[in-house]
Structure formats: C-alpha cells, structure tokens
Amino acid sequence: MKKIKYLLSICTLAFLGCNDAIDIQQPGRLIPETTFNSIEDLQRGIIGIYTLYDTTQEIALATNFTDEVAPGVATGGQGFNTGFVFELNSGSTAPFRMWIDGYIELFSINTFLVGLDAYTPSADEQAEYNNIRGQALAFRAYSHFQLLSYFSTDYADDNALGVPIQTSVPGLGDQPLRDTNGDVYAAIEQDLDDAQTLLSDMSSATSTFISRDFVSALRARIAAYRGDYTTALPLAQDLVNRYPLATRAEFTGIWLDNSNAEIIFKLERSFNGPFDFQGASGSVAAGGWAGNMWAFVNATAGGGAYYEFSRNLFNLFDPADVRYDAYLAPSSVVSPDYQNAVDFVNEDVLVVQKYPGSEGQFLMNDLKVFRSAEMLLIQAEAYADANSLNGGSASVAAAIKQLRDARYGSPQALPTYTTQTEAFAAILNERRVEFAFEGHRWKDIKRLGARANQNIVRDPLDCAQFNVCELNNNDFRLTLPIPLTEFNGNPGLREQQNPGYGN
Amino acid sequence: MKLKLTWLLTLFMAFVMQLSFGQEKDITGTVTAASDGLPLPGVTVLVKGTARGTQTDFDGKYSIKAKSGDVLVFSFVSMKTAERTVGAANTIDLAMADDVAALDEVVITGYSTSSKKKSAIASSKVTSETIENRPNASLVQTLTGQIPGLDISTNSGQPGANSLVQLRGVNSINGNTEPLFLIDGVPVNEDNFRSLNANEIESVDVLKDAGATAIYGSRGANGVVVIKTRRGTKDSTLKVNYVGILSYATLQDNRYDLVNTRQALELERTYGRARGAGLGNGAQTGGNVLFPGTGSPLTDAEIAQEADFDWIDFFFRTGVTENHTITLSSGSANASQFTSIGYFNQEGILNNSNLQRFNFRNNINGSSSNGKFNYGTSISVNYSKSDQLTSIGTNGVNQNPLFGALSSLPYFTPDDQPTSQQLANDFFIEYAPFYITDKLNTSDRLDEELKIIAGLNASYKITDDITATFNGGVDYQNVVLLNSQDPISRNQLRFNPAVDGFAQQNSDRQFSFQSTTSLNWNKQFGKHTFGLGGYLEYFKAHRRSFGFVANGLDPATFVPQDDAGFLADTPDDDARVDTVSATKSDAGLLSYFGAFDYDFDSKYGLNAVVRRDASYRFATTNRWATFWSIAGRWNISNESFMDDSVFQDLKLRASYGTSGNQRIQGNTYWSGADLPFNFFTLLQGYGGADAILFNQLGNNELKWETVAQLNVGVDFALFDSRLRGSIDVYEKETTDLFQDQPISGVNGQFTLRANTGTLKNRGVDVALNYDLVRTSDLNVGVQLVGNYNQTELADLPSEDGEIIGIGRNGGKLREIFTLRYAGVNPATGNLLYLDRNNNLTEDPNVDLDRVWTDRNSVPDFTGSFNINVDYKGWFLQTQMQFEAGRDQFDNDYSRFLNPDVIGQFRVSADFLRAWQQPGDVTDIPSVNVNNDQFGSDRFLTPMDFIRLRFAQFGYNFPAKSLETTGISSLRLFMNAENLFTLSEFRGFDAASRLNGLEYPTPRILSFGVELGF
C-alpha cells in the first residue's frame, strides 16, 4: 500500500509538471494589445499597409478584358477563357480579387488605426504620428474609391449602389449591405479632408509615399469620375503646374524607374521585396512583377510574350512619339502589311515593354498610380465637358497639344474638334495611348465611352480565333458582379447584385 | 543447429534405451502437419507412463522401441497432442492437427493485449507473412487492400513517396484524417515511412471502433495502426536470416492514344498550325530555330521524313531496386534480442529520381529472475538519401519532367537539344522537352533523412494483482534538403541572369516524445475477472529548422553540399545577397484516463474507458475535453447450447464511444498552432523595409472535433474452421467539424475556421477466409476483404445548406458541382451543355446551370480478393484489389484534348475525329470551339478499377535437401505489383487520387531469395 501511495504521488508530481505540454506560446506572434508600443512600431505598421497595395490586378483586368492586347507569339492559351471571350460572372477571379483585396486593405487599416489610437505620442512624436494617421486615412479613401470604381454601375450617380463602407473594425458576424455612391463619396471626402490636415509633406521626394499631393490627385480623379469637373479642374491644373510633364529623355527613364518626372505617386517594387515574384500569368489575380502580365520571361520578342499589343492599339502609335519607343520593345517585328501576312502571329510581333524590369530583375518595375499626364487629360475632360473644344488655351485641343508636344519633343499641330463627342473621342484615344497597360482602359470605356461614342473593338485578326471582337460601352460587364463567395457569408447582398449577372 | 544436436542426442538416448529394454520392437513412422501435409521435425514422441521418448527428425520420421499395447504420445507446440496405441503394425504415421485454442490470435486492445476471444473490439491484423518480401519501399503501400476499411492511396511513384491512409471513410473536412501510427508503442509521423524497413515488421493491428480507439482519445479519432517489430525469444540459439530482392519497375500503360509524328504534323497541317503548316518558330526574331518555316504546308513525303521520337521512353526508364535485409535473433534465460540490418537502393522510373536507405534495428527484452520486473527497448536508426524531382503535378513547361515525357512533340529529338544559353535567349513553348532536359542536367535536389525511433517499456509487478508500467518513446527525424541550380542553366540565365545560380540547404528537425505511466489492477474471483487501469499520458513535439540560400555559384568549384563555390555579393548590386531562415514550433498534449475491464467465464465481457484530454491548440476555456467508450461481447460459441453446432467460434461484439481530433488543419503536429488568436507579425514589407501587418483573424471559440462511433460486429469460424471471418457494421458521426464558416469579406477574408457541421460515415467491413482445399499436399485458401462506406454531410454552415467544394446537406462529402456536358453540336462543332431546365445550350450560365452530380472522389467500395495456394513447397499468392464509386477529373486527358496546344504539345489522336463541318457527328468538338472554357463533367471519369495489385510465386526447399549445405531454410520467390488494371480511366494509374502530370506508380517485377541459418 505504501508503494501505491508512493507511485500515486509520483504521478501527481508528474502531472503538475506536465502543463508545459499545453501552455505553449508560438514565437513571433504580436498580440494586438501589445503590438504598437512606439512610434517606430507605428512606422512599421504603416509600412505594413503600403505592403498591401498592388495595382497589377487592375492592370491585368484592363489588359485582358479590353482591346489592349492580342495573343502573343508564346501564348499557351493564357486568358483565353476569360478576357478574350469577355467571360465574367460572379464566380470569376476578377470580382473575387477586387472585392477581397479592397476589404483586406480596409480591414487592415482599421485594425491598424485601433493600435494607433491606443498609442499616446510624445510632443516631438506628434507630427510623425499625425503623418502616419494621414497616410492611413488617405489609403482608406483610395481603397473605398477603388472598390466603388469596380462595383458601382454609375460613378456619376450618387443614388446608385456603391459598396459597404468600412471605417471601423467589423464584428465577425457583420453582414453589411451596399451603401450608396453618395455615402461612399462622403466617407472618402471625410478621410481625405482629415488626411490633408494630418499629412506633413506636400510631396514625396521619391514619389513612393503618400503626401498631400496624393490626396489632391485622388480628389481630381474622383471628381472626374463623378463628372464634377468644377472640382477636378483646379486640382488638376495645380498638379500639372507643379509636376511638369517629362521630357523625352525623362519619359523613357520613367519606365526604367530611372526618373520620377511627372510622377505624383507610384508603388515601389524592390529586388527581393514582397512583390519580387512571377505572378499568375493571364489571370486577373496577377501579382508579382508587372511585366509578367504580358510575358513569361522578359520584355523582348523572345521573352515569352503571351500577350502583345493589340493591332488597333498599336496603330495609334506614331514612331516619332517617344511613347512608341518607350512602350514597344525594340526587338519587336512590325509587319509592313500585317493584314496580308501569311503568318500574322509570327510576322507581327509587338512586344509590350512598359515594364521591362529594374534592379536587375526582368519585368519588375514600380507601379505608377498618379502621373501629371492624367491630370492634364482630366483638364481636357473638364474642357470637353464645358464644351471648350478648340483654341490655344483652356481647351481640349490645347491640353492634347500640350501632352503631344512633350511626347514628340517638338511643337505639334493644334487639333480641332467639331463636336463634343469628337473631343471626348480624342481624349479617350489619347488616354488609350498614354496609359496603355496602366490599368485605365476598362474604366475609361465605362465612364467616357458613351460620351465619346467609342466601344471596345478588337482588330479582326486579333480576335479571329474566338470571334469575340467587341464590347459595347454600356455592356453590363463593365461593372463587376458582387463575388459569389461574399453571398455565403452575407446573403443579404444577393438582392443587391449588379444587373446582368443572372439575378 | 540446436535442433540437429537435440535429435542426435535423442538417437543416442534411444540407442542406450534399446540396450536396457531388449524385448521391445521398433516402431517407426512419419509425423506430418494436418494443415499443410509437411513433415514436422521436433515432435516429441513418448511412451506413455515411461520416461522413454524421442523426437522426429527433419523429415518428420521417428523410431522408438515399444511393446504392443503401449500408448505413444505425440506432442508439439501449437498442435493437438495425440495418442496412438501400438498394435501389430510396426509403423505408426500421424497427421497432427492444429490446436485451435493454442493458436488463438493475440489482439492488441489499446495499451494492453488480449486474446482474440476475450476482445470486444473491432480490429484487423496483418502479420509479417503478408508484409515482408515486398518490392515496395513503403510499408504502408504494402498494406493496400489488405485490411477491410483501410483505404490507402498512393499518388506518386516517386521513390519514398507518402501515401494517404484513411480508415472507414473521411472523418474530417479540414483536419487530419489519417490514423495514429504507433511503432512498438511510439507514435510516429504518419507521413513518413520511407525510411522504415517492412521486413522488420512482425504484425500490424488496425484498431477501428470506439471501444478500441477511445483509449487513444486525443489522437484516435481516425483509428489507430499499431505496428510491432520482431523480437527475439528467450532461451533460443542464434538464428540468422537473409532476404534479398531484386526488382524491376516500369511505367504502367495508358490509353490516351497520343499522336505520333505523322499524326501530329497532319493535324497541324489541317489546322494551319506550326511545323505541319510550314510555319516556323521565331523565324522573325532570330532565335535558336529548329524549323525556320517553309511558308507552305508540309507534303506527305516531307512528313514521312520527319523523326518520330517517344519522349516517354526518354524521361522514363526501367527502375532497378535491390533490397537486402539480415536479421539476427537469440535469447538467454532473462533476455532476448533481435537485430536487423537493411540496405535498400531504388531507382525511380523517372530518370533522376531514386532512394537509398540503410536501416539498423535492435530490440531487447529482459526480465528480472523473479519475473516481477520486465522491460523492453527498441531502437531503429534509419538513414535515407534520395534524389527528388520537383514541380511534379504542375504545368511548368520548363520544370515538370512529366510534362516533358507526356507533352513533347514527337518530331523533336534529343539531338535537337540547344544549349542553355540558346534556350535562355528565346522562349518557344513547344521546347518543353529541351527546357526540362536542361533543368535535369543543371540542377540538383537531394533529400537526406536520418530517422531514429526509440522506445522503452518497463513494468513492475508490485503485488500479484497490481502492476505499474511506464511506456515512453521518441520519434526523431532530421531531413536535410539540398536544392541547387547551376549558373549556366536555362532557368537561371533566363529568369535571373544577375544571380549566378544558387544553392539552397535546409535542415528540418522534428522530435516528438510520448510517455504513458499507468497503474493496473487485475483480479479473478471465480469466474469473474476484473481489470482496472489509471493512465497519465504526456506528448510533446518540437520542430526546428533552419536554412540558407546562397546566391552566386562558381561553376568550376561548386559541388553540392559544399561552400567552396559560393560567390560573395559584389558592391554593384544586391544580386548575390544570401538569405537565411529559421523556424521553431512546439506542440503538446496532456491526458489522463481510466479503463475498466470485466469478463465472466470467457462468455461475456465489458470494457469501458473515460479520458480527459487537453491540447495546446485551443484557448484556455476549450482546452480540455472528455471522451469515453463502452464495449461488450458475447462469446456465443462458449455457451453449452452451442456444443454441437457447426461453429468453432461465434462472437457478437458491440461498442459505442467518442474520440477527439485536435489536428484541425494541415499535415503536421504544428500546423494551425494558434488559430484561436488574433495577431500581427513582423515581415519584410514595402520597399524592403520592416513592416508589421495584421496576420491572423482568430476564432477563440475553437474546440475539439468529436467523432462518435457505433460498431456492431460478429466474429466467426465454422465448418472445422474452414470458413473464418468477421463482419462489422458501423456508423460514425463527426460533430463540431473544423470548417470554414462563411463570413463577409469586409473582415478581410471570406471564411473563418470554426466548429460547425456534421459528417457521417456509415459502412460495413467484411473479412472472409475460406479454406477451399486442405490436404497434406495441397492447400487452397481464398480471402475477401472489403469495405463499403458512404459519407453524408449535415448542418453545413451556409444559408442554403450547400457549399461548393464541400457538398450539400444530405449529400456526399466533396460532391462534385459542375455543368453537365452533353456532347458536340453537329451544327457548330461547339460543346453542348444541359442548362438548369435540362435544355441543350451552347452558352450555359455558370451561376445557375451547374448541378450536384452525386459523384465524388471518395470511394464507396474498397477491398481485395486474395488467393493462396501451396503445393509441396510451391506457393502462389495473388491479391486482386478493387475500388468503386469514385470519380475524378481526368486532367491529363483534358490537356491532351486542348485544341489551343495543337502545334505546341503532344495531343491525343482523338483529334483526328474532331468536328470539321456542319453535320459531323462526333464526340470531339471543333478545334476552333469557342465555349470550352466552362468547367463541366466532360472529363469527369469513373475511377472504378480491378487491379492485380500483388502476386507472389515461389518455392520452399524441403529441409532434407538442405541437410548438407549448412542452410536451414531456403525460399525462392518472384513478385509482381500492379501487373494489370482494368478500368475505364485511360491514364497510368487509376488508384491515384491526384491526376494530371503526376508521377505514376510503377509496375514492379521482382525476384527474391530468403535464407535461414
């Protein structure tokens, strides 16, 4: 019996010593309450927010689902099932990525702001503290606007459905419905107003951080989308004045990341950084190196170009224009008579070189978000909207000429437009050239297509394989559907699905 | 040796005795075994009532002096003792019958063993005879189809590849579904058997029902596989055994009907693609061009001149494997030992893949001279080295050797291979074979693994009724991975020319420790036997890994695993900055439990278990959970009213109970370590700067997943035990399933892992053995092993009770939800689908027209049909494995029928009957089909199959013929695995659960010899 007691006590002792088996803290976990304890932690926190932003999905959508590209020499069928046949439904990658990426950004910002609020800065930390908050709020405005731009049917209609606004950390069971555009714009305005006062810098020396100019540029873009050109015009004018258009030499440098001329904001992409990888080829999921959206390997004719310039985009380019040199790879093969080529695919190889690579890594370049060229063309839109079409100043013609003068490096003829539609068409075409492969085309057709009487139109040779060649500017597929996966956790939204998607 | 001495001695004794009892006559005879008719050496023959005795010799012959009327008593271990009265005849032959009672199988029941009769649990046993001498590297693979309800699927033929093991269906959607594996009481990583030698195994017991697994509560939810290795016997002389096997593995057949050169070029010509149409590749861009293009389609004569090369033969080979095992066992009065040394060298059927393995095992048993203290240790040290192919299963045209083998155009030949630089300069997608060949020639991928499993058990009998036991063990493995890429290689020059190659090395150490301390009391009161046990169990698992990637190699001095060729970073750029990594994870479990056993007169029995378990994974409030079970039996054949029945054995069993699963996601002890908690992490962020980012949205309500199981079974033996078997029916219900609860994306994710929903598995296990012929020369036995299992989902976390990818309420697990393909439209050549109203359409709505197909990838029926024949030392064994009720998308066929890749990759000759013009009625759509982007059941294939999984044929040399050789036993045999398969599936391996560019499991032929000394 004594023995048993002895054994039992050993067991009891063993048991007490055994709790190390279940009380385990995994290393490297920062629990929310104790994550942000210094201004340096907050600086790391805002860097974390920057790390979430990627525009390759936007670029991939605009490239794949429009008339920007055609199958390249190295195509293995990438994108054939989606953009080439304009196949878009609530189960597609595009709405899934755009929706969740936007809300990942918003959720992370709001979670970060909780930590930020809980920290009390010292007097000499106050300015940096405010600057960090300003950047977070500016990003929150940007994300809301990005979401709205994909999921709202009509940017200019404040009563149209926008997206659920997120300005605080949601509960796990929250099932928010869509807010109206007017409410979303109001939330955006609020954040931009706050950011404006909190941000410490007017501009970013490297163009890679958020400054008050980012706020102005975003305001100008939003106002143009809304058709509120009275707001857009002065903002755009100011930015063009302070960010003069690049010279021809600077312009080619922009795409090699050697020059920051005319760049108001861009997302930095660094060697061995979080975006230094090969993304999903031919998919809106994209990610990684931007140039990977057209080529597997590099931006040359032999670099595995699975997409190339669509022929009718290419036809808008003039070899005297620096944009021809900057955007088209020199190794491209331009067929003198492509329409009669025996082997069109191999005799007409128009390689996209907008993202040739940097820092020794092929295809990896900074992602340009706001350039003053956009601001200049927003001015042009404002003039067109006011029916100020021709003349040497404050007109569509003058704005277009100003851009072309810079791109050709010599004074160009002042164009003339007889109708507003013609002027809008000129702006849309200029945007098509200027912002080719920058992710604007899909939204531009949606918001300006009707006024310019332009549609998405592919060259017959480019679209011969599937015979899917046109998408009208009023097509429902220029608004993304709410993704199917959202309905599982938020069934009420099903009632608010966008038109055309089977409801 | 000992035996020989014994009967020499006996003969001497007999001689002596002859002198003393001169008036008796010589009785001679032969003793054989009734079961197989083989002579029985060593049978003791005694004249009853005297001290006179002898033993039979090698041929079962004996000679003894006896008088008429004397009674001879024949006795032998595990045989029924027989008596014969001496009459007039001088010869008495005897066929000794098996002693069924003595042969009663030992059944593992949780932490103890029991006789089969007294066991109330559902379990199946496989002994060494069915495991040893197989050509397979993996012990687990050899168990395929041998145990009712144990579903083993092997998706890769890569030497040392892991298998997925599931018992009686799938119990969890996201959690671990594999059983707990114990080797000599030590829990081991269920995904790593490549280092273990199957020839060391004595037996494998699979515990299935709640009555058996509840005692393993925290890890027994998916069943338990108890593996015992061989041990020596006390008081035995040294026995040495050698087994050598030589195997040849080849690729199994496929029926995709891939094009040859003529067919490929004709297709290209017809559809205006590539070489067949006279179009060159890259002619305009000045690359390395194998065919500049003629501008006009090739003529028949030109096509006839083109080479026709089979890239399958280029990438695949006949893989040769050698396998040697030597075992030594011996024992003295208080100790015994078993030692095994093994060497195994396997070539994979794909070039550049192999596995080389060394094993050492030593098992020792010992006891104190008073028998109160008993101990046993086992240690197994295993080292393996393998060249592993990477990117298997991917579409990487520059990476996956399967892609090169299956999809390379036959008019290219290895003589066309361009240099690495040429390949890097330009990209032609059809150059897949050259890219992959370049990769195989310029990169290395080596795994080295050291695995040590050590166990100790010790018990002390405190009183006659009370025993204290300690059982502990460790599983240690260290995997060192090496991955390098030469600076002069296509992939390096192409993707990252600034970096001159790289070498990656990673060391991953995993260590797990378990101890069980128990106190047991057993007591018999008349016909009542009671047992009571208290247990404390502690488990801890640690993982440590670290590694580096050295960027920049000097090709002249670089040798894998050495740093002589590492180049330093230069001031110009950061291209050669090396990277380092390290991880540390810990996991643990703590349990205490009690077990109660009762038996009445070997007729009725009851077992009960209650346990409390805690896991490190859950938040403090949900950490502990209680599991229990109760099991009962009735040995009907032991009732007196059964005395004259045909039944030698009849037992009814029933059990009900619960067990828990805390491995809520991933494959390791450590995955999903802290899902209940929110946290941020530090990472490299924007612009390369340090960043802190929200990383995990936790669910602090997570708790144990629980499996409740009801099992009713019957064990029987009848007609002189000719027919033996067991039948079990079971129903399992997993509640609080770890599943993704849909949430709104505003949380930054669409789902949150939660305990929600129910999964049921219902089924029947059957094992039947019948001795068709049972004579002294010829024995024929047949065996059927089978399982029927059906899964059913309930309470799915979605508003309509359906989750695409998981299934629907009342439906099967992972039921496929897709469009219905309805053939080719003769008018257009496009695909036709059925819409939601069963109307044909070319333009289905993916949201609304998809349907639940009632098909899934979990088989309904699994099992095998086995035949064993032996005739005078010859033996033949076959195992026909079958599986039914499983469907899978044939991704390979889908790729071979992708019209976009005609001219780029090898396609199926089925394209020759593609739709060409309105009115064509065919099953292959137009090459210009424009609606094949929709996922549908077009390539969904029934994977039902019957396969000759295993066959063995051989000869046991009779002992007599070996008398002068010094060898005590000799056996020669020939094995075959996967000899043929009947299936509708057209691919290489109908049993594989993965499909599309996977490494197929091979067909293996082998020859072996087993020698005993």
UniProtKB/TrEMBL annotation, chain B:
UniProt xrefs under Gene3D superfamilies: Carboxypeptidase-like, regulatory domain, TonB-dependent receptor, beta-barrel domain, TonB-dependent receptor, plug domain
Membrane protein topology class: Multi-pass membrane protein
Keywords for this protein: Cell outer membrane, Membrane, Signal, Transmembrane, Transmembrane beta strand, Transport
A Pfam family that the UniProt record links to this protein: CarbopepD_reg_2
Leader peptide range in chain numbering: 1-22
Domain TonB-dependent receptor plug, chain residue ranges per copy: 116-224
InterPro entries: Beta-barrel_TonB_sf, CarboxyPept-like_regulatory, Plug_dom, Plug_dom_sf, TonB-dep_OMP_SusC/RagA, TonB-dep_OMP_SusC/RagA_CS, TonB-dep_rcpt-like
Compartment(s) where it occurs, according to its Swiss-Prot or TrEMBL record: Cell outer membrane
Sequence similarity: Belongs to the TonB-dependent receptor family.
Protein name according to UniProt: SusC/RagA family TonB-linked outer membrane protein
Annotated organism of origin: Winogradskyella haliclonae
